[in-house]
Every structure is written in C-alpha cells, then in structure tokens.
C-alpha cells in the first residue's frame, strides 16, 4: 500500500512524501527544509532519498539543506549542473536506467519542460504497486502498464487561460510558455486515455495554477473520465 502526503503543491513550492510502509521518500524539495521537518513531525531521518525533477526553485529550494541533513538526493546530471550543486550525497541518474532504493525500483524517464534535463519517475514496490510521478511537462511520450497510483501535473485549462488573457489578468506571452512547459487539463485527459488504468486506485492532480485552473472542475472531469478516486493536492 502506498501512502501519499502533499507537503506543498503549486507555483509557490512542491514537495511530497510517499511511502510503501518500508521505504519513505521525498519527491521534490521546493519548500524550506524547516517546513518539511515540521510537516513530518521532525521524523526525517528515515527518509531514504529525495527525488528532484528539475532545477526550478519551486522544486529544489531546500536541496542544500536536505543534503546537509544526510538525505541522499537523486536527479539528472543536467539538473545537478544547473543547480551548481556538488555533494557526495547527490546521485546523478539517467533516463531509462532503473535502479533500486530500499523496497522501490525506480525508473527515471524524460519529460518535456523548458529546463536542462527534466525527469519524471516510475516507482514500483515489492508488492506490485506502481506510482507514476510526472510534473512540469506538457507532454509524456511514454505509456505505462500496471499503474496503481498516478501523481500528475494538471496546471491549467486552455479555456480558462484564454479567458484570463482576454480580460488582461494573464499576459499573452505566458500562453506560449505554458503550452510548451506545463500539463494542461486537456493533455492530461489525453495521457490518461492513452494508458491502461485498469489497476489504478488513485489519481492525484498536482501543481495547479493559481490563476488558470479550477480545482473542483478538474477533479470532476478527471473522475468522470476515469471513474477513479481523484485528489487535488
């Protein structure tokens, strides 16, 4: 069984705690380490690793403190170089080269974002659960089998974005970047339709935009499409 706890999700910071009951992990370090400690009741010593998808501060803000606390951190070489971080606890990982950490087998994969070498991760545990974690990507070129848990960005909806641009709430130039860097509700739906969801227990929608999303609508539309439990983190 996989437990998921969102410590922060959105443009102000991203950090998630997951565990299969044996090997706890952090996904992203985009908030202060003090906040991470506080939200985990200062029980961070058992965390086996922290996985960072890319170098933007809302995903890596406290990476130095996480390393200093003794937690190994996993990221692509491009992300480590962009962060200019050198530490013996930094592990450079490569797309499509899986490895084990405690009870997890982890498969990193490429995602599409406007940074140096962003990654998503597929976590499989020893009892057959599979968790997909993908954020800050406008598209995923892979299909996945046997997923039980999905944590996926659902940043904006095109119609809300267009309305906001029309009334001047969002600058027009932002649209071009969003289309090539973040997952829209429309593209998340296409991704889910393309994948086998027969074993999926939960879908967690991540990183919703403050201006260009609608939490209740996104949840309802993904639930209607998939028939699965949907949470907005």
Shape: globular
Q: What is the ordering of alpha helices and beta strands?
A: EEEHEHHEHEEEEEEHHHEHE
Helix/strand-derived category reads alpha/beta
- The radius of gyration over CA amounts to 17 Å
How would you describe what is shown here?
With about 230 residues, the chain is an alpha/beta fold. It is about 25% helix and about 25% strand. It is built from eight helices and 13 strands. It has helices at about 35-40, 55-60, 65-70, 75-85, 160-165, 170-180, 185-195, 215-225, and strands at about 5-10, 15-20, 25, 50, 75, 90, 100, 105-110, 120-125, 130-135, 150-155, 200-205, 230. The strands form two sheets. A seven-stranded mixed beta sheet has the order 7-8-9-10-11-12-13, with helices on one face. It has a six-stranded mixed beta sheet with strand order 1-2-3-4-5-6. β5 (about 75), α4 and β6 form a beta-alpha-beta unit. α7 runs parallel beside α8 (about 215-225). It is globular, with a radius of gyration of 17 Å.
How is the secondary structure organized here?
Layout: E1 3-8, E2 15-19, E3 25-27, H1 33-39, E4 49-51, H2 57-60, H3 63-68, E5 73-75, H4 77-83, E6 90-92, E7 99-101, E8 104-110, E9 119-125, E10 130-134, E11 149-153, H5 158-166, H6 172-179, H7 185-194, E12 202-206, H8 215-226, E13 229-232
Parallel strand pairs: 3-4, 4-5, 5-6, 10-11, 11-12, 12-13
Antiparallel strand pairs: 1-2, 2-3, 7-8, 8-9, 9-10
Helix pairs in contact: 7-8
């Amino acid at each position: 069984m996989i437990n998921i706890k969102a410590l922060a999700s959105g443009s102000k910071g991203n950090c998630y705690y997951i565990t299969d009951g044996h090997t706890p992990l952090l996904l992203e370090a985009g908030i202060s380490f003090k906040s991470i400690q506080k939200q985990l009741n200062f029980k961070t010593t058992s965390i086996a690793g922290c996985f960072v998808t890319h170098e933007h501060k809302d995903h890596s803000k406290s990476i130095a403190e996480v390393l200093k606390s003794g937690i190994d951190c996993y990221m692509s070489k491009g992300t480590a170089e962009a962060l200019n971080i050198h530490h013996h606890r930094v592990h450079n990982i490569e797309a499509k080269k899986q490895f084990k950490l405690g009870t997890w087998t982890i498969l990193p994969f490429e995602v599409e974002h406007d940074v140096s070498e962003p990654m998503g991760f597929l976590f499989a545990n020893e009892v057959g659960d599979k968790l997909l974690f993908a954020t800050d990507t406008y598209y995923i070129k892979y299909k996945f089998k046997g997923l039980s848990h999905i944590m996926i960005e659902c940043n904006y909806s095109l119609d809300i974005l267009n309305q906001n641009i029309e009334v001047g709430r969002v600058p027009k130039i932002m649209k071009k970047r969003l289309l090539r860097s973040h997952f829209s509700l429309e593209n998340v739906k296409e991704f889910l339709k393309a994948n086998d969801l027969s074993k999926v227990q939960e879908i967690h929608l991540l990183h919703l935009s403050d201006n260009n999303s609608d939490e209740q609508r996104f949840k309802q539309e993904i639930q209607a499409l998939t028939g699965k439990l949907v949470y907005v983190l």
